[in-house]
Amino acid sequence: MRTARKTLSLLTGLALGASCAGSALADGQLDKVMKDRGLTEKDVLAAAKTYTPTGGRDEYIVFSSGGQSGQIIVYGIPSMRILKYVAVFTPEPWQGYGFDDESKAVLDQGKVRGKDILYGDTHHPAISETDGEYDGQFLFINDKANPRVAVIDLHDFETKQIVVNPVYKSQHGGAFVTPNTEYVITAAQYAAPFENGFVPLEEFNDKYRGGVTYWKFNREKGRIEPENSFTVEAPPYSQDLSDAGKGPSDGWSFTNSFCSERYVGGIERGRPPFEAGCSAKDTDFLHVINWRKAEELFKAGKTVKINGGNVLPLDVAAKEGVLFLIPEVKSPHGVDVSPDGKYMIVSGKLDTHATVYSFEKIQAAIKAGKFEGKDPYGVPIINFQDSIHKQVELGLGPLHTQYDSKECIVYTSLYVDSMVAKWNYCEGKVLDKISIHYNIGHLMAMEGDSRSPDGKYLVSLNKLAIDRFNPVGPLHPQNHQLIDISGDKMELLYDMPLPLGEPHYAVAIKADKLKPEVRYKSGWNSREDKVSEFKTRAGREKTERNCDASGNCTTEVWGTVIRSHITPEIIEAQVGDTVKIHLTNLERAEDEVHGFAMYGQNVQLSIEPGKTSSTTFVADQEGVFPYYCTEFCSALHLEMQGYLLVQPKGYQAKAGGMQEGVAYTQADYDKQVKTNVDTQAVIDQVVAYITSHNYQDFPTVVGLVEDATDQLGFAKGAKEKAEAAAAKQDWQNAMLWANQWWQYQVKTADLGLRAKTFLEQNGAKKIK
Amino acid sequence: MRTARKTLSLLTGLALGASCAGSALADGQLDKVMKDRGLTEKDVLAAAKTYTPTGGRDEYIVFSSGGQSGQIIVYGIPSMRILKYVAVFTPEPWQGYGFDDESKAVLDQGKVRGKDILYGDTHHPAISETDGEYDGQFLFINDKANPRVAVIDLHDFETKQIVVNPVYKSQHGGAFVTPNTEYVITAAQYAAPFENGFVPLEEFNDKYRGGVTYWKFNREKGRIEPENSFTVEAPPYSQDLSDAGKGPSDGWSFTNSFCSERYVGGIERGRPPFEAGCSAKDTDFLHVINWRKAEELFKAGKTVKINGGNVLPLDVAAKEGVLFLIPEVKSPHGVDVSPDGKYMIVSGKLDTHATVYSFEKIQAAIKAGKFEGKDPYGVPIINFQDSIHKQVELGLGPLHTQYDSKECIVYTSLYVDSMVAKWNYCEGKVLDKISIHYNIGHLMAMEGDSRSPDGKYLVSLNKLAIDRFNPVGPLHPQNHQLIDISGDKMELLYDMPLPLGEPHYAVAIKADKLKPEVRYKSGWNSREDKVSEFKTRAGREKTERNCDASGNCTTEVWGTVIRSHITPEIIEAQVGDTVKIHLTNLERAEDEVHGFAMYGQNVQLSIEPGKTSSTTFVADQEGVFPYYCTEFCSALHLEMQGYLLVQPKGYQAKAGGMQEGVAYTQADYDKQVKTNVDTQAVIDQVVAYITSHNYQDFPTVVGLVEDATDQLGFAKGAKEKAEAAAAKQDWQNAMLWANQWWQYQVKTADLGLRAKTFLEQNGAKKIK
Question: Considering only CA atoms, which of A742, A691, A688 is closest in space to residue A716?
């Protein structure tokens, strides 16, 4: 409060001084806002560091897991505005995900043992890497509950593939990529038999297993290749997070674990609970894996097939120098390889220390064959002291570490202390601590998992929000806190509530590395990334009804959508028909998405410019089923409608056409034409403004002008139809087409005005 | 840019001046941030007006429709941070919505003609009102695609009920409430037969119908009563939005319409499209309905039953003075009653004018029986000129109007112009315009639909974002722009991307009117708002397996969840069993939610403090199915796990108990006890700090202390078990229970540290 008052009086003083006059900040406006809203100077600085004015861009884009929402959350730094939820494991109708046939095929890949799984528990996203640097091409995310991995293509932010782990029954650790995205790494969590049958818990030690899976990624195809992927079988310790080596440690990966006690609870039968037995020992095991060696063994045929997957047996992994163990402080979460690939930092939530392992020392021990023994499964154990560089006391509940751009500087989350510690891992010295709110899980620095972290900002992913935000019922948002790490002291900048899902980990990439498209090539199946077999061109729309020999009939529609009508506007089917509707969005304009919803059939498509989407359902009840566009696309959006008529079997239409609700005359036509001529004058003025300015320097405006030109072309077509009808004195059609001509003019004017406003607000210059 | 430079030099100058030293703002820090980020003075002011520091509260809470996402979006003003997505029509696993048995029952209410509909197209939310003021108790939202209404209880932000309109086939207009929430009003959109069978479009004028439905709301029960609700049948014009009268117009409601041409398209067969024929006339019809009269007629038995719903026939409505029509400018969107109930403002997207109707004049015409004629269905038409107060030219595409706190001041969105117009509806004068980005649909003022709007802020709900944000693929976020309306000129403050869904309308309520709970009463079925029949107390957990006469067996679990274990930890079933699991969250602490996910069974529950949630599935495959807590609840969250074992039919466990992974000795026990004694010392220090400060003045801390006390109680229980085992020299159990004792200590310390930090950061005072 003292600081705030100081600023206030200072600013008030300034406002009175001659040298300070005329400024919006100094004339007391900021002063007044600060006073009214109880802001301190520090708050105003934080506001200025995060506020992003209209049309501004964020410097970093974050991909955050959505936890049990099964989605990915995309937000910007420093504005902390959420830009998109990308549907991954859970159907989401706004995106048509799990509603159109194309995306249903992706979700179907994720069935577990034949069952639909309509959610996922996403934990750790990873961006594809080239030479250890985020390349912004693909994103990978795991499902813990059902051991799956999804591939998201960042050229359109859509989920393209889901693969199911053939042998795990849970999979918390993942996804992590090798430095050139050769593999996506995931690890089992709760030990279970690799085979799918029942095995009693009494045989836990002998028959339950963990493992680490290396999913082969084909970058050209943008897909994981399960047949070229393999799993390294591991003891029934609960494997947790991994990281891939890089530089000197490339070819190796590191996975930590908990419950290496192999304890099985049963509190209901008097046994102490899992939480007691799984945290009883002082140490668990860091798993050190030579994945390049494992790959060689896989290629040499040393793996076995289990449930169709390739598994490198534990005894082979132990014997062939693929798998090693090192003690690590108990219940760790996260093993993080340094940018130079020389060190791995691990900390345990139930120990106050972080441990800095040295890859060089580990390799020396392995080469010397110097082990302190073997675990019960014959896996060599490297001595803790032989493998560490430093051990540093950080505080209560250290959990996850991220690297700064500055040499030797790291940040570690402290779960129990609700703090972030900044420390020097070369010298083993704590430099700064900051309180967060509350109970931080992971933290994330900008490009923090890459070979060259950017520093600048840190995000604290807090597991509890409690009182941080306006209350919204018993289920609270989480809280991502943005921290400025550019200076010596960490500074808290912003609290962002997460409105849906429980994020676990996130990755941030420099925004300019992402180059997403704004439209698809015409007639595109976006889930298969190829021209759709159902692509339909303007004027080629058709509806066909065909029956097979057993009398099963299909009504199939190849249609289009464009401002502001769906072709066809009437679909006729007979009861019992399978109805297939394929719609191609003919728009080229950015953001001109059309939706397609139909009454009572659970149909909702999102058809972005260029996309072809399909829906299939059985019309099992007679009736009238309105459909319409669900994206507010234009002034006539509400009128972008149609009817599916499900007729009785064998229905024949009676003679006599449509009843007209209103009959139009020549006077109506003439009046409409006059309106159109007047409207054209307005359009001509707008065009004159645009073309007299340097609009070609503004890509957004160039896009608008192209679109406006298209719409004017459509207007011309409608005008011709109107005039043809008028020539035949068919005033009904003359008037209606004249109105349609005007509707295209309105769309043209809409675009022109948007373009004109943009030019005015962005300092366009008059030319000539 | 000129302004920015001016500030910079000004601030730089200040920093050098003696009177300006020592301030974080003036010592050049703000200057530098502005320069680095290219911010103008206006930007910094906007930042200060919206930035909300950690722990701060928003002044208003917004409930926004989520469009075809089928959800409600909750955000704060002025921070524009999204606080929650509330699942309404679409299953959402983070909330367990559509996954637990209790919420599945709510979604099941929303089946349409027997079919599951797993999305909704939400458009217009309404907050319950008392005397025309938002009371913050309930929220209502429509589904356009499938004619449904949902009821959300704002005491816990959960969806409680979905009702399906018995006669409509689409329903865009809704929800709107009468001044004491007697009724929730919805209107049909695309005309269709009221009966469910097929009727050819050739009979459109005769057999297709629109209507306005009045859903009776029972506030005591918090539920709509379909049996006490009724529909006023209307001509097959596309009815659109409504508003209820208030004050002098209470008892009446107003609904506008488009396509009163009754045009039916068919572009695929050469007919001009719907968009041409539905916008051909200059005017559509404002529907004026005496709902109090309709209610009387319903109670007097004048309605007929169609599909089980109560319908007041069109001829009765026309004859009995229930329904009147007035011309309105074409293709309107929104009819908005003034706070004093005397005026209704309507504007049409294809006309440049807004019309201010006078309720007094309308009533005078009705009383005088002065009509200009009847429509083809016999409904009296009131003359336009006889009913209006003013008609005002605003710009291109006027769409929706909101009222200010200042008398006679309103704001109207201009879709084609991409602007907001501020004008005086008493005098019919435009006062100000501001450009938005781009193509505004609805706009919303604070408590703008109530009897006493608050002014202050306006939100522009824009339908296109185009270039406003970092690109995220072909499907763009929408853009809600916050506008400061406290001064004479409107000022743009903030652009908020909407990351999921396509919001149409929103309502904002003063935050302090909302009093949501942070926990449920113990063992609560939140969807039925009563104690669950499956409520389970600590220590009363049980699993039962029962088979019926036909050999169908059910394994049923009454379990509990609490930091950090699920009871039971092992569930045994036999293949083919129906498995029912009921879990009660024993926590009382704010935000201590536990989740419950199980491998391969599509099971994901969100169990907030006090809640009882259930899941039912068929264990149709033998095997081992891990389950675990999906909310990161505590340091031992990962260890909050268990196994469902699906055994072969008739399986009998072999003799011999669990293999222990590790055997513990007296030394292990003694070491753990020493740790516990040391930990207790830390706890005592924290307790001393808290109790020596005025912690009881901080409700958040009081909550934490209560929770910590509970955890210490649990620690005591585990300690007793450990000591009892030690007395028997059972070192295995002694050690494990001693560790469990420590786990409870860790939870206690976690809470204590959080409380201590809170006190330190919130200026707690030392007492005595």
Answer: A742
